[in-house]
Structures are given as structure tokens and as C-alpha cells.
């Protein structure tokens, strides 16, 4: 029986609503399987700025370091988006957390629950069976390089940077995952134009012989953006840089029917962080309609990856599957066939899964 | 009656095959409408490297400068893609051409011919009526900033850069185009993380009041990658930076059924260049199966934008429409309903349009 300490970091917007449901699911698992989970809570993002002036207070970081895993919500607020000159921003908290905790690998599994085949804008016959695992590098690239202004503020610049070491450690994680799946790895870059991409491709080519059982292909990011929609089933494991991963995984959310279904795990040197790939979604905040399934599935990833509790993780995924099979939907995954009384809000959907 | 000089630059791979067809269409238009088009041809890309050692020989650049418009094919060769250390690459020719000719605005119209509704992997009811005009900035960003290696080659870097001037001139073109369409402009950036994007957003916000009839929205690039598939009809004109435009327009090709249907115009300070958005596609080169419609539609854009010949341009588009209505398809846009004898190769498809 495991005894674990979990930090809940809801963050901004619908992060609050969905993480609350994710936590209930963890509670239920603890009770059912006889584990002891203790919890604490901490601030990040806009709510942290409001309370402390900082997007990632030291106290939050301390608590993260001391926890066995973090269940995370979302950060962001429209106020900052419309003010490009803001000096303190919620996203800085997220980026600092990733850097400070050494969360260099962001795993984003894209898998369509069969019941949601109709919810996607992509044709069911193109989607059926699609199952992709993204490895997005999370602590390098243009996100963390020097940036600033020159010429009296009239010119802006951002530096993208990667070292061999940074590429190699995420690449190895992706190769190893491919081994346990369909043994295909697609590395995505823009090596025909960008130097960091050339280094990226060099490193992949160099270590590939150590994984002779894995079939490797290289694709340009523009072609990949196209192929993900045209033929999603051709992909198994995809590994890519931070910025390309940001764009491609949001795009790939359409393969799973909705962003509201997708969970992610950020892992690396220490505590792992588990979060939905959707954002703070202030347009629907407080309305009780947000889809909690991404947070629930993040909890499932947490149980599996940070605690090694496979059966518990599968129990969560099966519960979600059952609820979908029973026809229950949140608004974002409902389609014309969904009866009005099967369209649930955040809490009611959580209830069903519990 | 116009008298114009057109430079044909087929480049690599299927560029040769499709551009030959595009030229035939220009010939036919000249004959039918009583114009005099004279032609010359020049090398770029891999074929230029083989012949001269340079991806863009001075002679080609000279000829481009002296022409009234350029009909362009594609550049690229797998040989270089798999050698990240190659010093001379076909793509350098393309990038140098864009820079030297000041082609800062790349227009990519994404419009679905109704007959191809079935050819896309996206559901017809999501696609029907989608009509997007992309303005991709083409001479700045991470494509043209300093790049290189440090730490004995163990670290690679690329600098992304934009000046106010560069953002403003492409933004104004996009605002003006929006005025002639549905009066909506979506500016795409990653202003929550990247400094060049913050400058980008600042400039758009600053000039927006000069176009009070145009409704402006700002979207992050990751959200846009998702929304393009989820709800393509929400977009009218989209303006974005070079790298984001590269990725998003390839993705958006799926809205039009196939990359083989999409034309682009690169315009700026001097001669305009017209080319398919597809690449050199060496996997199908020489097989005579490449779709020539993107090159034909590039010729239509050339007639319209560089020569102001609207009726001639429309005649080309109508011919393409008629051929599609008659059920003819190249392989890439055929679907299960297409009869085998209606699936044509490059030359036969060209014949039908002529
Ligand atoms: C909020 C933003 C900074 C973040 C990112 O770009 O990494 C988000 O889009 C994500 O994917 O987690
Ligand atoms: C070939 C490559 C350098 C080019 C680009 O990235 O601009 C191509 O993808 C394009 O979109 O024209």
C-alpha cells in the first residue's frame, strides 16, 4: 500500500474547476485500493500574481520539490495577452516551474476513445485506431533563450538554443517508449532551415543505431502539421522540440475529439507534473461546463508514471471509457446525436466517473 | 493587349513536371486573349547546385529581376535532408531569392473547390464554405537571423528577429486584403512566450485603428493550429510570421483537400514569384502523377496580381473548376467514388484544363 504526498496546483481559470475533480478521483482511488494520499495546495499564474506579486512564489516551488507528484491545472489570463508590454505574466510561472524542476520531457498521449469518433472534425475512417504518443522537449528552445529589444525597442529578438545533451536525453526517452509500443519513432524538425534542427537531427541519427528495433523517420514540421490531419495513423511515437511540440500537440488534440480530453505528463529530474493540455479558458470559467476528463486522465498518468500504480491508472481510464459508453458528454465532446439530458457540466461528469 | 516577359524556374523534383503544365496554360491564355508573353528559363535548387555549384546562380537572380513575373516550381532534395552537416543546400537558393527580391509577403489562398469536399480528411460539413487567405511574412524571423554553433559544435542556436517596419508592411497588406473580403483579420503569434511575437502584436494593435472596418483578433499559434481543423470557417484573412506561416499553411492545405491544389504568390518590392505550396516530392518525381493544378492556379494568381489581368485569371480558375466538375482527378485528390478512368496523370490533367 503506497503512501504519497500530492500537491494540487489549480492555477487560473477552469484550472480550478477541473483540478478539483481530478483530486476527487485520486481520493477515490486511494480509498478503493487502500493507499494513503495526503494533499497540499499551492498558487501559480495569475492567482499567484494577485496574491503575492509573483507568478511562481518560492513557497509553491518548495512544496513542489517536496511532493511525490503535482496535479496541475492551467495558467493564463486575457488581461496579459492583450498587453504585450506586461512585465510580469502568468506564463512565466509555468516556464519557471518547468525549468526549476527540470521537467524536460512532456508526454502527450493522443488517443481517441472510440465513443468520440463522431466528436472530431476529422472523418471517423481517417481517425479510427489513431494512437500517438508525443514527446515534447520542455526546457529548451526559443522558450528559454535570451530575448529582448534593440534599436530603441524597434527590433525584437528571441534566441533558440539546443545542446546535444538536451536533445539526447529526450530522444532516449522517446526511443524507449517506442520500444514498448509499435516501434516507430518520428522525429520532427525544420533541418532544411534551422541550425538547432540540424543538431537535433544529428543527435537522433547518432543514437538511432542503439535502438535497432525502432524504425526512425525524420519529418519537417510543416509536413508533419499536414500529415497529422491527412493520415494520423501513420504516427506512433513523435519526438520534437519545445515550440514545434506546442503547436503540433494542440493541433493533434483534434484527433482526440477535443482538447478537453487530453492529459500530459511533464517529467525529468525530480517531481513529475500532470496537467491537461487545455489552457485556462477564461471564456467558460465559472460556468461549470468545463470538461474535467483531461484532469482526470492526468491523474491517471500520475498514478502510472510517478507512482507506478498501473492497475489504479487503468481503473481510472476504464471509468472514463464506461461513462463515455453510457453516452455522457460534456459540451465540447457532444455531437448532434447526444441527447440533451446526457450533456453534463463539470461536477456531474466528475460524479459519473467516480 | 499586354506584352510581358515571364521567367520559368522549375527547380527540383516534380517542380519540373508541374511548371511545364503551368506554362502551357499561360501560353493558351496569351493566345486566347491576344497577349504576348515571352519566356525564359533559369535554374535554382539542387539542379542549380549540380550545374553551377550554387543554389541560386547570379544569372538566375538577374533574369528574375528583369522579368515581369516568375513562375516557380519547387526546391529540395532528400540527399541534403539526411545530411544535417551539408554546407550548400537547395533551400538556400529559395531563401536567398526571397530576400534578394524583397518578397516579404507570401499570399496563400486556401479555398476548397466544392467538388473536392470528399477528398479532405476533414468532414464536409466542417469544411463547406471555408475560404481563408493567409499572409505569411517571408523575409524575416528565425529563417534569416544569425545561426550557428558554439561549444565545439555541441550547442546550436538560431536567432529570430523582427523590426516594427517588417511587421507593419505585411500587416498593412493583410488589413487591405481583409477590406476587400469578409473584413476579419486574425493575427497569429505566441506573445505569451516570445518577444518577437510581442512586438508583432504591438504593431497590429497600433495600426488596427486605421482600419476601423476590419475586425481584428489575436490568436496564439498553438490555438490556431487547433482551430483551423476544428472550425476553419471562422477565419477570413490570417497574418503571421514566417515560421508560423510555414507550419499553419501546410496544415491548412488539408482544408483544400490536398497540397496539390494550393498556389501561392510571393510579392514585395519587385518581381512577384508564383509557386505551388507543395514541395519537390521526390517520391513521385518522374512518374507523371503529380497534380499540376497548384502550378496552374499559381499561373492564375500571376495573371491577377502581377499583370492585373482579372478576366484571364478567372478563366483559368473556371477551367480548373470545370475539369473537377467533370469528375477528373489526379491521384492525390481522388476518393473512393472516383472512377479509375477519371484518374489522370500530370500531362492528361493539364490537357483537360487547356
Ligand atoms: C501557456 C503556454 C506558455 C504553454 C506553452 O506554450 O508551453 C501552453 O501552451 C502549453 O502547451 O503548455
Ligand atoms: C523549402 C522550405 C525552405 C520552405 C520554407 O520553409 O519556407 C517551404 O517549406 C515553403 O513553405 O516554401
Automatic annotation (TrEMBL), chains A, B:
Cofactors required = Mg(2+); Mn(2+)
- Output the Gene Ontology terms for molecular function: 3-isopropylmalate dehydrogenase activity; magnesium ion binding; NAD binding
Q: Briefly state the protein's biological role.
A: Catalyzes the oxidation of 3-carboxy-2-hydroxy-4-methylpentanoate (3-isopropylmalate) to 3-carboxy-4-methyl-2-oxopentanoate. The product decarboxylates to 4-methyl-2 oxopentanoate.
Instruction: Decide whether keyword Transit peptide is in the record.
Output: no
What are the leading ranks of the lineage? Answer: Bacteria, Pseudomonadati, Bacteroidota, Chitinophagia, Chitinophagales
What is the protein named? 3-isopropylmalate dehydrogenase
Q: Assembly state and interactors?
A: Homodimer.
Residue ranges occupied by any Isopropylmalate dehydrogenase-like domain in the UniProt entry: 5-353
Amino acid at each position: 500500500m503506497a503512501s504519497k504526498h500530492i500537491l494540487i496546483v489549480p492555477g487560473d481559470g477552469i484550472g480550478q474547476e477541473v483540478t478539483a475533480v481530478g483530486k476527487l478521483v485520486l481520493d477515490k482511488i486511494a480509498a478503493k485500493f487502500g493507499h494513503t494520499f495526503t494533499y497540499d495546495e499551492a498558487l501559480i499564474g495569475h492567482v499567484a500574481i494577485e496574491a503575492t506579486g509573483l507568478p511562481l512564489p518560492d513557497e509553491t516551488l518548495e512544496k513542489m520539490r517536496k511532493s511525490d507528484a503535482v496535479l496541475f491545472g492551467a495558467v493564463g489570463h486575457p488581461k496579459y495577452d492583450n498587453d504585450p508590454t506586461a512585465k510580469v505574466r502568468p506564463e512565466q510561472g509555468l516556464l519557471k516551474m518547468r525549468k526549476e524542476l527540470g521537467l524536460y520531457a512532456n508526454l502527450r498521449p493522443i488517443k481517441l476513445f472510440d465513443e468520440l469518433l463522431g466528436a472530431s472534425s476529422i472523418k471517423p475512417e481517417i481517425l479510427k485506431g489513431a494512437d500517438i504518443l508525443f514527446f515534447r522537449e520542455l526546457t529548451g528552445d526559443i522558450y528559454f533563450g535570451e530575448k529582448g529589444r534593440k534599436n530603441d525597442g524597434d527590433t525584437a529578438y528571441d534566441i533558440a538554443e539546443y545542446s546535444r545533451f538536451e536533445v539526447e536525453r529526450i530522444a532516449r526517452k522517446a526511443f524507449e517508449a517506442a520500444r514498448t509500443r509499435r516501434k516507430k519513432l518520428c522525429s520532427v524538425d525544420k533541418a532544411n532551415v534551422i541550425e538547432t534542427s540540424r543538431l537535433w537531427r544529428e543527435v537522433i541519427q547518432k543514437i538511432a543505431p542503439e535502438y535497432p528495433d525502432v524504425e526512425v523517420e525524420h519529418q519537417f514540421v510543416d509536413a508533419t502539421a499536414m500529415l497529422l490531419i491527412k493520415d494520423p495513423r501513420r504516427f506512433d511515437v513523435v519526438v520534437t522540440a519545445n515550440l514545434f511540440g506546442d503547436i503540433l500537440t494542440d493541433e493533434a488534440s483534434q484527433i482526440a475529439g477535443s482538447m478537453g480530453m487530453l492529459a500530459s505528463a511533464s517529467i525529468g529530474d525530480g517531481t513529475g507534473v500532470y496537467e491537461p493540455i487545455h489552457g485556462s479558458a477564461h471564456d467558460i470559467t465559472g460556468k461549470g461546463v468545463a470538461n474535467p476528463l483531461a484532469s482526470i486522465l492526468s491523474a491517471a498518468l500520475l498514478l502510472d508514471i510517478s507512482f507506478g500504480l498501473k492497475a489504479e491508472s487503468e481503473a481510472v481510464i476504464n471509468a472514463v471509457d464506461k461513462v463515455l459508453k453510457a453516452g455522457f458528454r460534456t459540451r465540447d465532446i457532444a455531437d448532434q446525436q447526444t441527447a440533451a439530458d446526457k450533456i453534463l457540466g463539470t461536477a456531474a461528469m466528475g460524479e459519473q466517473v467516480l
